[in-house]
Every structure is written in C-alpha cells, then in structure tokens.
Amino acid sequence: MYKVFKPDVKNALVIGGGAYSIPKAILSDIPEATVDVSEIEPSLYQLAQKYFNLTNNERLNNYTIDGRRLLHDIEKQYDLIFSDVYYSLYSIPVHFTTKEFFQIAKDKLGSEGIFVANLIDDLSLSNHSFIKSEIKTFKTVFPNSYYFAVDSPDKIGTQNIIFVGYNSDKLIDFNDQKITSDDNPIINSLGKKQINQSGIDFSKYTILTDNYAPVEFLMSQSIQKSFSK
Question: Which CATH class is domain 2-228?
Fold first, then answer.
C-alpha cells in the first residue's frame, strides 16, 4: 500500500521481524531503500537467515530492541513504519496500542510518511471491541487515516485489519480509476476492502492510553466469540 501513499520510500522501519518477509519484500521492491528492523527476540534474525532465505544485505539494519524503545531513542525520520508485533496469534503487547505510541511513531515520520499496522479482531458491533477502540485511538493521532479488512469489511469473524496513518493532509480516494485500474490486485481492491466508519458509534469505545488500555480484556471478548463456535 505504500505505493499509493509514498512510492519513493527511502527509509523504512519494520517493528517485529518475524520471518523477515516484510523487510525482504521492501528491499526487493525498492533497490534504493534502507530498512531498519526492530525484533526483540535475539534468535529470530539467525533463524530467518537459516530457514526463510534472509540474506546479508548492507541496506538491512537489525536491532535487538523493543520497537517502541527504538522509536523513542532513534534520531531518524522514516518514510514508512510498519508495526506487526504479537505475543501470540491474537495478543498484541499493550504498549503498541496506545495513543502515546502512535504519537511517537508519527513524530518519527517524514513529510507524507505513512505508519501501517497489522491488527487482528472482528468487526462486529459489540459494546466491547478492541478494534473499534483502536480506531478511535488511532484517529486522535492520525486524523488522515484509513482502515482495511484483509478478507472483507462485511465479514463478522476474526480477520486481519490494516491501519494506515498518513502524515499529510492529502486525501486518498480508493475508488479513483488510477487505483482501481492498477495492475497490482492488492492495490486495485483497496476500495472494496476499506472499512466504512459512518455506521460506527465511536462514543461508546475507549481511547487507549498508557494509563488505561484494557487490551487483554477487549481481546478476550473476540477470542471467546471465535472459539465458542
């Protein structure tokens, strides 16, 4: 999606290395880009080299440090920050969900830079919803933001939800012909994947802060619904 918002990415940060698929893709797609990776698990970098075809690359900088700590400390601005951090399939570390974290990330974005986060939840209109609280929180920092359901906005069950915060006043119309006619199927389907917020009453959802972020409780509601079936 960065190709829609910021095609000329020079500096990228990936929070959460995992199998290093995202860093490898960026390095392959953008020959001039430098990618920093924050991965707190010391062994994953070597495991990715051994099992996931990660090769040595002078444009890849790996940091064994918490991603929020790296963002706080580093004196650098990024064109793209991608956050994909999890304890497990569902549970995201609380300090990567709050208003304060998103503000730190935004402060490290350059002009027209984008912050992208991969989250998991369902879109049902329940009174306790992690994803609705997270959208409300995210919008306080990124008023120009966009949200996409990887499977479908009409799906009620659990799925990946992609957040995009744009450090720009420029608005993006995902039904524009330039986007819908793009050769890349991910890009040309973004209009169909975009979540319509007009029917959501955000007043009943909580803004998540460092002082109050009941993420485990909110996610437990989704897990209970998913596995009760």
Answer: alpha beta
